[in-house]
Specification:
Blueprint lengths: L1 H17 L3 H25 L5 H17 L21
């Protein structure tokens, strides 16, 4: 839950620097919550079938790879406004 606390603390700064609207900021937070829920459902189910320590270590290793690993583990966030499709605009 530390990520949740960090995100809300720096949200005004992120919105200003990245030019995010409130909806975009909410979408980022919602995506985090959905992924967190999916991870909890999968990992909680796995603890019934596998050793908890193994699951914890594998999750920590994956988080380390995702945070500091190659580019294909990272997600690119595009905050540019969508193109205007109105005639004459």
């Amino acid at each position: 839950m530390l990520v949740f606390l960090n995100y809300t603390a720096v949200l005004p700064i992120l919105q200003e620097e990245w030019g995010m609207r409130h909806g975009e900021a909410g979408l980022i937070f919602s995506a985090y919550q959905v992924c967190y829920l999916l991870a909890v459902l999968v990992l909680a189910t796995l603890t019934d079938r596998m050793d908890t320590r193994t699951i914890y270590l594998a999750s920590a290793a994956w988080a380390g790879l995702a945070g500091t690993g190659p580019r294909h583990f990272r997600i690119r966030v595009d905050t540019r406004p969508p193109p205007c499709h109105f005639p004459g605009a």
